[in-house]
Amino acid sequence: MGRESLFGPDRICAVVAAPTAKEMARQLRRALRLTRTVELRLDWLKGKREIVRLLSWLRVHRPRATLIATCRCRSAGGKFSGGVAEQLAVLMTAVAAGCTWCDVELETAQRLRPGGLRSMLGRGRGLISWHDFGRTPANLRAVLNKLERCRGGAIKVATQCNSIRESLRVQALARGRRNVVAVPMGEIGLPARVLALRQGSALAYAPVEQATAPGQVSLEEMKQLYRADELDRRTRVYGVIGNPVSHSLSPLLHNTGFIARRMNAVYLPFLVRDLRDFLDAVRPLGIAGFSVTLPHKQAILRHLDGCDPLAEAIGAVNTVVVRGGGKLYGYNTDYVGVLRALERRVALRGSRVLIFGAGGAARAAAFALAQGGALVAVLARSEAKARGLARAVGGEVIERGRLRREFFDAIVNATPVGMFPQVRRSPLRAEELNCRLVMDLIYRPMKTELLRRAAQRGIETVSGVEMFLAQGIAQWEIWSGLRAPETAMRSAVLAALRREERLRGAA
Question: Largest alpha-carbon pair distance within the chain?
């Protein structure tokens, strides 16, 4: 789509980084299955001997690809310990071995006379780069000017983005410029990194295996899940906002649905510490809707232009639609998720159910269960919040000390205790689980420590993955107006969770 990059038709650049030439060659072969533009991080190789081995291998095999040689010094965030002369000698040898481009950091390029780099590289072209791994400076235009004075074939700016607003500023550097590579770094910059090609960046980087900068997305994800090189100005952007958000499988769920229905849409994870920072980016990024997770499910309410009556009654929103003029309208599909997950296993009417927690997810669960006819009890760290929720659903407040003496038809954990990566934690002790069924709203891992303890006592368990799938599918249908490809979406999520559990078991 769009114009061809200076670097060739493939604008997703695979990053190959390993300590040995053998590993680098293996990664390169793997990268070439998905893209023909590859960065070789020569500075990652363990010593000069491994660099020579890799470059000798390149001379023999001559892969059909645009190869970018990078030998970044430690002072510029790389691993190369030699001096500037040694660094340039490595890059010249890389050009002789078949590399088309050399990434040369600004600090090195400035030591050469004007035009010196061009004559030194011969057939190779210089990508003059500048990195700031700590922040995004206020005056990015001044950085661009310094890079341009080095007279390379292209320039690259990569900065740590500590707000979404900063990531948009980095993206904007490439607008209308064919020779600029814009790289927003850090987890907050991840969505802008995926959307960089759409915004005009000449390249977007993605590691084959080893991440070489914060916030990178793997090559497979960049190419196959996010389809970063297929996105254009007509692409509808969706996402999930939360803190933390890196654990979320919502991008896998929703993007699988978009791919199955061949929709020009993408779903991205937004690490949001400040709601206003994200909301200011809704229009610039063309966001059409977003999911809301911890800790924003209740706080988002005051920023909405309208709200579904049920979500308003619950007092928490997990789904937002962006309507004409940028108006935000909220829904709650957690409610649907809890009902679908539980009503097939428990006769809700007249049953007694304990909700552990009083946040947004707990409120949705409590309302769903109360509407289904259950008698709801609430236990939470904040007694005031527990009383408020119990009052809203006509339930009761339970003190933790009573749990050993009380019996419930079901206990529902609506706290984040036990969520990945703190998988060994449980919000409740085994002796406090006096019930027929335990449900954990956490879905990663599928079998939490709480569910393990319940199973050891012979109690039926329900993984949060059931609620996650139900609420996410309901979201997808609200946004798209289409019937969701449930089988494909469910299979993708379950496969990812099972793969993760196998890896964890093998570790």
Answer: 83
